[in-house]
Specification:
161 residues, mainly alpha, 59% helix
Length: 161
């Protein structure tokens, strides 16, 4: 007999273990995941590697993005072709290797994409933290002429009296 609380703990542990795995592991388990979930996981991992590559660099977001793109492009046209199937031991080159591996078609991400990754923006053009925020339902807020009302008369109207 299966105990439900233990099952919940097992699912939580499985989710934690999956979150730590590279996207290739999830692709091997693809029959369990939707293509969009795999794609999102891969892009999020790529963005984490881009942010890790920016650690210790100084400059504006645009300057950092330009610098990172230059370095990844240079690595992609030189050493990556020889290290494609074997990640390098050097941590910095390993980050660039992973960025190229996770980018669709081993393409170098654009400067715009790198800037968005550095800013922590998700795919819907809003910060990742804001994407998860709950939005109030529209029926709870005054609409039309009553939106932003402060006078007693308009508050009376907003209450439906």
């Amino acid at each position: 007999m299966v105990n439900a609380p233990d099952d919940d703990l097992d699912l939580i542990e499985i989710e934690r273990m999956l979150a730590r795995q590279p996207v290739e592991t999830m692709r091997r388990l693809a029959h369990l995941f939707t293509p969009s979930a795999l794609s999102r996981q891969g892009l999020e991992e790529r963005n984490q590697k881009i942010r890790a590559l920016a650690v210790g660099r100084i400059g504006t977001g645009r300057e950092l993005a330009r610098e990172i793109r230059r370095d990844v492009r240079r690595y992609g046209t030189t050493a990556y072709q020889y290290e494609r199937h074997h990640p390098p031991a050097d941590p910095r080159r390993a980050l660039m290797h992973r960025i190229l591996t996770l980018s669709r078609g081993n393409k170098v991400p654009s400067e715009h994409t790198i800037r968005r990754a550095l800013a922590g923006l998700g795919s819907k053009k809003t910060p990742a933290m804001i994407q998860q925020a709950a939005h109030p339902s529209s029926h709870q807020e005054p609409r039309g002429r009553d939106a932003g009302c402060t006078t007693a008369e308009s508050l009376h109207r907003a209450a439906g009296r």
